[in-house]
Automatic annotation (TrEMBL):
Gene3D superfamilies linked: YVTN repeat-like/Quinoprotein amine dehydrogenase (2.130.10.10)
Subcellular location: Nucleus
InterPro entries according to UniProt: Beta-prop_CAF1B_HIR1, PTHR15271, WD40/YVTN_repeat-like_dom_sf, WD40_G-protein_beta-like, WD40_repeat_CS, WD40_repeat_dom_sf, WD40_rpt
Database matches in Pfam families: Beta-prop_CAF1B_HIR1
UniProt name for this protein: CAF1B/HIR1 beta-propeller domain-containing protein
GO cellular component: CAF-1 complex; nucleus
Main subcellular location: nucleus
Length: 555
């Protein structure tokens, strides 16, 4: 695995608020034997940029091929349709613009401007109906409809072909910061600042289930066992986005901005990602703690992988593994549905908070955007995440009838979900990639990736997250002027349980540090769940926001 920060001023160094890969497969041009992925980015400079991402001599090259500048305010979200033909972008002016690529040139590019006009996209439709900023967009599987969430406390379902709204969902008491469309085309799920996750039936356009308070899944004898607590952050949540998602098969709904509030006010709350079954969003089936880092976005890898023979017994009885990335304010956690703990953690790669994440269709590229004006590209080697699942065995999903009290409707759910769990953080089962920033004597900034495999006692494990985030707070005021490209090879380690001790062997080279992880069986102490939720006096951390005056893009 390599983490690269290209030396690109993506949006005039203004915050990059959204990124998205095109859903279609890798494109081959007609005139050249070029293969690339198409990436769209939206920024606070009110521009939408489209890039070609290519593999080049073991690395990745980025080329900006077009610039879309019809928006008048910051672009908060960009999303390609599943067909790959349409790009939707929403801004702070309550406008959603649908873009289509033109097949042929209408005008010739100017001399010296071939790259920026390599592709030509035009505005196809403009959707107007929201009154305030549009924060999130999600497409229907057939690319005929989309849903958008806004600051005006509404979510609107649009007919793309007609260019008008089908339904306006107004059952909200706060900003709608995240929306997602069910792959089975039955539901829409939304997340808002009123601390509620709603499940909307597409046939009736009514909210049929909502998650606000619930009895969380815990280990036997835990102090929260059987108690009802709030599941999500309130409107003081320090992010504009709560981007939730369904898994590829639609069986699970993964929601960010989760929180487990303690019983005593002196105790520190636990941030988490909440996972529901599509059949019941009233109670979670899993909770993935992230300690001091609130989660803001979740995206599933488009590729399913075969189960590992040497891996643990999966909690969810599926014939394959699904991998999903969870973005917090400072880190990216990678999970799969077979292993309890994260399979990888990438942290401290940006100076300010993250905003969005996206996967390429082959699952080998993960792009992360940030308000510091830069994007990170995480590249996985072929087969590094596992063997691609190729069996053609789709899982049938029966529609849930909430008015039917018959226990038969839960048969499929019981076969799929074995047991609810509150996940422990097991640092020995994950690769923690900590990007430590240092300044060279020459005055240029460089970032080096250092693998961290912790063997801590329970008390150290509890505070490990906050120490890892705040250890570089003295350099957060420095703005990267010319960030250098940094790479490192990392071999992911999958652990069957918490009894694998990882030894790190580092072979230093001039430009690239090659890290090999060797696993050896041992008996290491398992983290006590109570210690993760134990009391600690909260402390205040100064919030730093980097911004720059709006500038006109030079064409």
């Amino acid at each position: 695995m390599k983490c690269i920060i290209p030396e690109i001023s993506w949006h005039n160094r203004d915050p990059v608020l959204s990124v998205d890969f095109q859903y279609s497969s890798k494109v081959t041009t007609d005139n050249k034997d070029e293969k690339f992925w198409r990436l769209a980015t939206g920024g606070a400079d009110s521009h939408v940029l489209i890039w070609h991402v290519e593999f080049n001599n073991g690395g990745i090259s980025m080329t900006c091929v077009t610039e879309l500048n019809r928006h008048q305010k910051a672009v908060n979200v960009v999303r390609f349709s599943p067909s790959g033909e349409i790009l939707a972008s929403g801004d702070d002016e309550s406008v959603i613009i649908l873009w289509k690529q033109k097949g042929n040139w209408d005008i010739l590019p100017l001399p010296g401007d071939e790259n920026s006009n390599k592709e030509q996209w035009s505005s196809w439709k403009v959707l107007r109906g929201h009154l305030e900023d549009v924060y999130d967009i999600s497409w229907s599987p057939d690319s005929n409809m989309l849903v958008s969430g806004s600051v005006d406390n509404t979510a609107i379902v649009w007919d793309v072909n007609k260019g008008r709204s089908i339904s306006i969902l107004q059952d909200y008491k706060g900003f709608v910061q995240g929306v997602t469309w069910d792959p089975s085309n039955q539901y829409i799920a939304t997340m808002s600042t009123d601390r509620q996750c709603r499940l909307i039936d597409l046939n009736t356009m009514k909210t049929i289930q909502r998650a606000n308070k619930a009895k969380v899944p815990t280990s036997p004898g835990h102090r929260l066992e059987g108690k009802t607590i709030r599941l999500f952050h309130d409107d003081t949540f320090k992010s504009f986005f709560r981007r939730l998602t369904f898994t590829n098969d639609g069986l699970l709904l993964i929601v960010p901005s989760g929180i487990i509030e303690p019983e005593e006010s002196t105790e520190r709350p636990l941030n988490a990602t909440i996972i529901f079954s599509r059949h019941n969003v009233k109670e979670p089936i899993m909770i993935l703690p992230t300690l001091d880092e609130p989660t803001i976005a979740v995206r599933c890898c488009p590729v399913n992988y075969e189960l590992r023979d040497d891996g643990p017994v999966s909690i969810i009885a599926l014939p394959y593994r699904m991998i999903f990335a969870v973005a917090t304010q400072k880190s990216v956690f990678l999970y799969d549905t077979q292993q309890l703990s994260p399979i990888a953690v990438v942290s401290n790669i940006h100076y300010t908070r993250l905003t969005d994440i996206t996967w390429s269709m082959d699952g080998r590229i993960l792009v992360v955007s940030s308000t510091d004006g830069y994007c990170s590209i995480i590249h996985f080697h072929d087969g590094e995440l596992g063997t691609v699942y190729s069996a053609n065995k789709p899982i049938e999903i029966s529609k849930l009838n909430i008015d039917d009290n018959d226990e038969d409707k839960h048969i499929e759910l019981k076969k799929t979900i074995n047991k609810p769990y509150l996940f422990d953080i097991d640092n020995e089962a994950a690769m923690d990639v900590d990007a430590v920033t240092s300044l060279k004597n020459s005055g240029h900034s460089s970032i080096s990736l250092t693998p961290v495999i912790s063997e801590l006692d329970p008390e150290q494990q509890r505070i490990h997250g906050s120490d890892n985030i705040n250890k570089n707070k003295n350099i957060e005021n420095k703005i990267i002027e010319n960030p250098e490209e940094i790479t490192e090879d990392i071999k992911l380690i999958y652990s069957e349980a918490s009894n694998n001790e990882c030894t790190t062997i580092i072979d230093k080279k001039d430009s690239v540090d090659e890290v090999t992880l060797v696993t050896a069986k041992s008996t290491s102490p398992k983290i006590n769940l109570t210690s993760v939720l134990s009391a600690k006096t909260p402390r205040r951390v100064q919030l730093i926001t980097l911004s720059s005056p709006k500038r006109t893009k030079n064409l």
